[in-house]
Each structure stands twice: as structure tokens, then as C-alpha cells.
Amino acid sequence: MSSLTEKDRPIVQLLLSTGTCPRCVLRFCCVGSQLLYRHPHQDLMKDLQEFLKNSQEKEDTVCLDVADPPCKRIRLEHREEGADDLNHNGAIPQLPSAGTGNTATESSAGKVCNVCLGILQEFCEADFVKKVCQKVNSADYQFTSFVFSVSLPPQLSVRERAAWLGVKQQMRNLGLPLAKDDIVQLKEAYKWIIHPQLSEELGVPADGKSLFEVSVVFAHPETDEECHFLATACPDCFKPAKNKQSVFTRMAVIKALERIKEEDFLKHFPCPPSSPKNLCDALEIQCNNGAVFVAGRYNKYSRNLPQTPWIIDGERKLESSVEELISEHLMAEFKADSFNFSSSGREDVDVRTLGNGRPFAMELVNPRRIHFTAEEMKRLQQAINDSSDKIQVRDLQLVTREAIGRMKEGEEEKTKTYSALIWTDKAIQREDITFLDDIKELKLDQKTPLRVLHRRPLAVRCRLIHTMKSEYIDEHHFRLHLKTQAGTYIKEFVHGDFGRTKPNIGSLLNRTADILELDVESVDVDWPPTLAD
Fold it and tell me: In 3D, which of 133, 149, 144, 285 has the Cα closest to residue 202?
């Protein structure tokens, strides 16, 4: 049973007399009944008034028996011993007698709560809930559940500390024992009230693991004014940040409250806190869907198409890319805000990717649409393939974030197969290149190629050429099929990169060699799963 008992009477009297709302009074009395917080504000005020009128000899209750899960607590007291029992004016507030319940409740009626700044008052009403739901519905998201988050003004932590110190001083002054129970967090109490209303209005359950988040950001115009004394007492806690309009962030204020001495706090802030001049503002109501991940394999048939946009010094070099040809359709269908493209390795702009293609994945950020059937994914794949003759996509499917790790694992661990068209300065005969077919597990030392040195660190990488098979064309040309360790620079293995790759085809043939064309024939990563046509 969550109930108010005789020991709670002084707390109820003090807080109501200083302008605290009924729900915050219940929080400070450590009431954990979720159902009780959902009662109308006026009913709670009447219940508290009745409680104060009852005989002090009788333990009375003001709520129903409710089986609720354990609630989270917030610690407001850090030491057993506090400071002197003085508020900022050097006097202890007088505790109203049991017979002045009306006076106490009248002090709280119609005012903005001096602790929650109205969060547990106006922003728990049906009108505000409807406003939130209108915002959600107008955003046109697909969701089957939701998680609700709230951002509160930083000075709420200051006001809660002040209210707690006020209660502690008063109880000590009366010679009454003070339980060390921790008060119910404001955020938790707010969610107890708001969750059922949002669920009913949206028609879906609240779920802490849901990927669809509805968030409300509250702000208050007096934040800087009320927190300024903390910056004087604990200057190291408040450092300007580039993306923050004020140094008084929630974490900075909490850090300062942990450091400031109790006597210093009491000198600078009224305990209990005074009534605020203004109500909180609901600054933003936001919706956000967790990212959706799409994977597949792509073939690239053009020798004039980069994998990602090719932009140098702000100037676009080529009009499109593999990434853009795929993302254009996915972004439109999933109605996402943005995307992140990744793949199992990458090919140069002049290199084709053939065979069963290169595995890729795309993270779609904050998508409005998240549910697609297998048939719809097939149609989306076909739309991508019909839009360009430069690429083709296969095995397009929805995957999890964790599954993408399998693709990345293959970048360095798996093998890749290439086909290179090679030119030599001196004439060659068929028998001059057949010895290449017999070379197995050829070890290379590859210094970072000159062409990528501007974006890769200088290092010597050891790589393996597992097998080679030559195909004679004419006196100056032959084709070489290679199976290599992932991460091998094939172009440099052919021409040597001015001696930075050893050995190389030129040194093996004892003549100058260069590469005219290169194709990726297979990327041996068994991901994503192959789909039936």
C-alpha cells in the first residue's frame, strides 16, 4: 500500500504552504503509486486537505491499493549531517498547524509549482497530450509502439534540492525523525501520468525498447538567473560549449550540486524554493524513428563512376556515384532524413565490379516508413536497376545493425578475385608468362600507394597473392586472373608504384608493365544472404 501516514504530515503542510503542487508533495513523501499520480490535480488537492484535517492520532490514507513496479529514486542528500538550520534570510519557515489545512492548500491552488515549475500541472492535462499527439500524427511515421522522453530545465535539480533541504530543516527543528527514503524522480512521475494518455490517444503501447521516440523539450526563462550562484561557487563545473546556448546544462548543474557545500547552498537559494514568476515552456515536441538498415550487393558496369561522390575542394568531378544511384530510391521510399553508406571494400572509379557483386549496407536515419514486405523490397530493387545501366543491385533486404558487422569482418579476412588487362613495353611470348600460374601464396610488401597517400597513413602492408592464372593475348598484352588477400593494391602490384610494391609483375617479368583495365570478379564475403529470385 502506498499511503500518507502521520509522519508525512509536516512535509505535506510545509510544501503546500510554500506553493508546491500536490503531485510534488506526493513525490517528497515517497509515494510510489502510479495510479494516484494520475488522479486529477483538484482531487489530489482535496485529498491532501482532508488528510491535514484528520486527527494526528490516526494513520490515514489518501490513495488506493495498487500493485506497482518499484520506482526509481533520485538522491538529494549526500551527507548525514547538514548545515545550520538557516535559509537565505536566516530564519526557519513556520510550520502551519494541523488546523490550517485550508491555508496550506490555498497557497498552492492556482499557482505554478515552486518545485516542478508546472510540469506536473498544466503539462499533464488532456489539452497538452492532444497537442503532442497531433504533432506525432502530422509527422506521418510508421510505428507500433513508442518510448517517451522528456528534457527538463536544469534548475529543477536546484529547486528539488532546495525543497528537500527545507523539509529536512523543518523536521529537524521539530525534533522529528526524517526517513532517508529518496523522493520519486520528477521524470518518472511525469511518465506515469502521461504514458496512459499518450497510449490511448495514439492507439499503441508505451515500450521502453521501442525504436520510435516521442520527446518533449521543456525550457524556462529563469534558468540562468536561478543557477548563477552555482557558477560562482563551482566555476570549474561550467565551461562554454560550442553547441550550447547556455553554460547551465543539466549535467553541469548536477555536478555543481554534488560539489557545493550545504551551508553555501542555503545562503544563496531559498529553502523551500520561492514561487516562480513563469511557467515552463514546451519548447519542442519531436519525433524520431530508430535507424533502419538495408543491405544487398551491387554490380558496377561503368569505368567512369565512383563508389561515393567524387568532390575535390568543393567541386564535383563526376555527376553521380554508386552510393547516390542506390540511395536516391531508398531515401524516397523510406522517407528518411539522411543515410550512411558502407560497403565491403571499394573499387576505383575506373574499375568494374562484376560477378555476384560487392556487399553494401545503408543506414537510413529517422525513416518515416519502416515496414516493407519481401515483395515490396523486390519492387524497390527493380526500380533501382531500371533507373540506370551503370549499376545493378541484388539481394536487397532489411537487416539488423548487428548483422552489418559480418560485412566489415570480411574486408580484411576474406579473399577477392580480380581480372587485370596488362601491357608490357617489351614483346612477350606465351611461355614468358606461364610461370606466373605456378606461383602460390606470393608475399608482397606494399608501401602506401602514392595515389592514396593524401588520405591513408604511410605504412608498409604485407599482403598475399594466393593464385594467378595468365591468359596470353598478343606480344604486348595479356590478362591476369588473381585471387588475393583483401586489401591488396592490384594496380601497384602490376606496375610497382616506383618500387613501392615488391615484388611486382614488372620485376617478375623483368620489364616495364602497366595495367590498362581492372575488374573485380568476386568479393568472397558470405553476406548478405542470397535471396531467391
Answer: 133
- Catalytic residue at 348? yes
Could you say which of 182, 207, 264, 348 is catalytic? 348
Pairing of strands 460-474, 477-485: antiparallel
Specify the CATH class of 291-410 in words.
alpha beta
- 14-73 tens-digit pLDDT: 999 999 999 999 999 989 999 999 999 999 999 999 999 874 445 444 444 444 555 555
Tell me the CB-side half-sphere exposure of residue 432, using CA atoms within 13 A.
18
**Where in the chain are the domains?**
6-56+112-226+269-288, 291-410, 416-523
* pTM metric for this prediction: 0.82
Q: Which residues of 270-307 are buried (b: 16+ CB within 10 A; e: fewer)?
A: bbbbeebeebbebeebebbbebbbbbbbbbbebeebbb
Q: What is the pLDDT of residues 204-247, one digit of tens each?
A: 999 999 999 999 999 999 999 999 999 888 988 888 776 667 78
Closest CA to 238 of 154, 159, 160: 154
Q: In sequence order, what are the residues at sequence separation of 6 or more whose Cβ sits closer than 8 angstroms to the Cβ of residue 217?
A: 150, 151, 282, 283, 284, 285, 286
**Which amino acid is located at 83 in the chain?**
A
